[in-house]
Amino acid sequence: MLSRAQFLGGAVASLLVGCGRTGRKRLGLIPKATSHLFFVSVHSGVTSASKEFGVDVLWNGPQEETDFGRQIEIVDSM
Length: 78
Description:
- This protein is mostly helical.
- It is 55% helix and 10% strand.
- It is built from 3 helices and 2 strands; from the N terminus they run H-E-H-E-H.
- It has helices spanning 4-19, 37-53, 68-77; strands at residues 26-29, 56-59.
- A two-stranded parallel ribbon has the order 1-2.
- Strand 1 (26-29), helix 2 and strand 2 form a beta-alpha-beta unit.
- The protein is flat and about 35 Å long.
- The protein starts with a helix and ends with a helix.
- The relative contact order is 0.17.
């Protein structure tokens, strides 16, 4: 028979294994538009910084700045 501590330890271990976390921080970045030259340069900087600091970055944004509906969809999905 398992003690309470053994049971809780096993439950926590199974949760940690089951969640698939890598231990790295993950940031979601949503630019106003992905086609604008400014945001292309921002993406380049974000990619470099994510490698330097060991962070995963989810970069997703609409093509055009005026696609407000897509911006909302992306925010909701992140």
